[in-house]
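Q: Hand in one record:
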Amino acid sequence: MHRRRRTRIIATLGPTSSTFDMIKKLSEAGADMFRLNMSHGQHEDISKLYATVREVEKITGRPIGILADLQGPKLRVGVFKDDHVILKVGQKFILDMDDSPGSEQRVQLPHTEIYQAVTPKTELLLNDGKIRLHIEKVSEKEIVTKVLVGGELSNRKGVNVPSAILPLAALTKKDKKDLNFVLDLGVDWVALSFVQRAQDVQEAKDIIKGRAWIMSKIEKPSAVHSMDEIIAISDAVMVARGDMGVEMPMELVPAIQKKIIRHARRVGIPTVVATQMLESMITEAVPTRAEVSDVANAVFDGTDAIMLSAESAAGAYPEEAVATMNRIAMSVEGEPSYRRLLNKDVASPEATTADAISAAAKQVAKTIEAKAIVTYTGSGSTALRASRERPETPLLVLTPNIETARRLTVVWGLNCVYSKDAINFQDMIDKACNICYKYGYAKINDRIVIMAGMPFGTPGKTNVLRISRVLENQINI
């Protein structure tokens, strides 16, 4: 039922992975959470995918998380008379508010926010950064540019503004409609696109009101600069390397990835590394060696989860992509250097009881060679603290809240069991020992370490550390 792999895998669902059989195969291959991309598909389609995942969850008996990824504001040029043009290096090219079809000299840019934010001598990037324009003059309705890097530009291609904080909210009208829809469905996580500052996250929090956890996608230069503030207010962060690699020099992305993971772990929230991880597997059954190294490096960095996008949503080999990612992560985690890197970057415990007990549980479990660390949690906070320590000993989470169990599926090392809360101290010990035995974590006479809070059922009250031996009279399978 449970994974021995610590790093979690998120698989995006789409046209090639929308059936019950395929979603079940992806789960069995290693997917711990499924992503619903709100940029594609109607609400009816999203609702069917959600229901299918929940059916798979019942069959597998393993909590499965569901992440709804909001589209965010999309900045695009208008259309061309002949559907596309070729821009040449050195030529003048104008972006304006005129909605008539474009030409080699001009095209519509219907976003007043860009006109307000940009200045001369800065740059605009078009078509995923393939075309680069140097701004020479700006007015309320026109931006005059010189082409630095030319090429083909076709209808409605995207626009990136790397050097400015745009006066745009992270949530568009479509996003707010989608957000209310997925919250009513019951998704566990909401990914927030186009985050520029902490206020964007707070706006989403005010709408969500605790009905899901928020994952902030760090993909804009402004978000990188405001990283600490965004991480402090988020429940998780995603290293969204697609737009990040367009708006920032690509050679900076690996170092930024490591920095985000390190900062998030220090705070105690999970990180997800995403975008083009096994891109060639959209069409090929085997990834490139460079892609394998990329996935492996993300695992070595200590990320909580790695994510597949088009590889599992629209690719020809979705099951193979998940299985490949699973094998890579398992291989890395078996390397002695992986453990050395995790221990080298361990965060210092905060001056709280929960942190002190989490740090002690890791050390005690290693010293006595315990077979598992069992964490009782209602809200998930105790489990997050236990995961932050990155113990060698397997982590088993017992929670009476199925929502908490699903949300924790993205967190490093946590194996969640939906179980009634303990009613007293002895029941706490008996439940932990019984479940460890049931799921193969421990045998009779093996020792386990238990973390819990008393009185039971009180959130944020981790104050008990117990060493217990699994006894035969505790087993009730």
About this structure: The chain has three domains: 8-73+170-335, 84-160, 353-474. The longest helix spans residues 43-60.
